Amino acid sequence: MRAICLLGAAVRPDGPSPALRRRAEHAAMLWQSDRSQVVLACGGAGNGRVTEAEAAARLLGEGGVPEDAILLESRSRTTWENLLFGRPILQEIGATSLVIVTDPDHLPRARLVAAKLGLTATGSAPSGPRPATARLKGLLREGPALLVYALRPRA
């Protein structure tokens, strides 16, 4: 079975961030192309009471993904934890391959984490315009974070 792993992004007091919306819309589109798969929505609670996974699940439902095709990992706070805490859920359902959904600049780090955790994964990122500030912030964050994660031992 193939699973889609939707990585978390911020949930603000007024609702899901644009990043979470983009990712959830993209994951729903991927699910629509092959309805035999499941979507694992990842992400714990940040500053709000709704977890990133719960907010993503709502968006997935709005995108046509039925509730029984959505799994939640709602404890994680980092990319590493998204996949670490998601791994037992994926193993329990017998997922043999994984498509990680996140933003383009985040995808190399997410795939590195998957490899370090022994997960067979590809990646898919939403296309389309993103604000220049979001792209710049992503690039500035991802370079150092990729280095830190590259130095982290396998789990």
Question: Could you characterize the architecture of this molecule?
Answer:
This is YdcF family protein. It comes from Histidinibacterium aquaticum. InterPro entries: Cell_Envelope_Assoc (IPR051599), DUF218 (IPR003848), Rossmann-like_a/b/a_fold (IPR014729). Pfam families: DUF218. With 155 residues, this protein is an alpha/beta fold. It has one domain (2-151): HUPs (Rossmann fold), CATH 3.40.50. Helix content is 46%, strand content 17%. The chain contains 5 helices and 7 strands. The strands form 2 sheets. It has a 5-stranded parallel beta sheet with strand order 5-4-1-6-7, with helices on both faces. α3 crosses α4 and α4 (107-116) packs parallel to α5. The longest helix is centred in the last third of the chain and has 20 residues, at 132-151. It is globular, with a radius of gyration of 14 Å. 37% of the residues are buried. The mean pLDDT is 91.
In short:
The protein has about 160 residues and is of the alpha/beta class.
Write down the overall geometry.
globular
How many domains? 1
The number of helical elements comes to 5
Strand order of the largest sheet: 5-4-1-6-7
CATH architecture: 3-Layer(aba) Sandwich
Number of strands: 7
Q: What is the straight-line distance between the termini?
A: 23 Å
Main sheet record:
5 strands, parallel
CATH superfamily: HUPs
Structural class: alpha/beta
Strand content: 15-25%
C-alpha-based Rg, rounded: 14 Å
CATH topology: Rossmann fold
